[in-house]
Amino acid sequence: MAKHVVVIGGGIGGIATAYNLRHLMPELKITLISDRPYFGFTPSFPHLAMGWRRFEDISIPLAPLLPKFNIEFINEKAESIDPDRNEVTTQSGKKIEYDYLVIATGPKLVFGAEGQEENSTSICTAEHALETQKKLQELYANPGPVVIGAIPGVSCFGPAYEFALMLHYELKKRGIRYKVPITFITSEPYIGHFGVGGIGPSKRFVEDLFAERNIDWIANVAVKAIEPNKVIYEDLNGNTHEVPASFTMFMPRFQGPEVVASAGDKVANPANKMVIVNRCFQNPTYKNIFGVGVVTAIPPIEKTPIPTGGPKTGMMIEQMAMAVAHNIVNDIRNNPDRFAPRLSAICIADFGEDAGFFFADPVIPPRERVIAKKGKWAHWLKSAFEKYFLWKVRNGNIAPSFEEKALEIFLKVHPIELCKDCEGAPGSRC
Question: Rounded to an integer, what distance in angstroms lies between the CA atom of residue 38 and that of residue 421?
Answer without folding.
Answer: 37
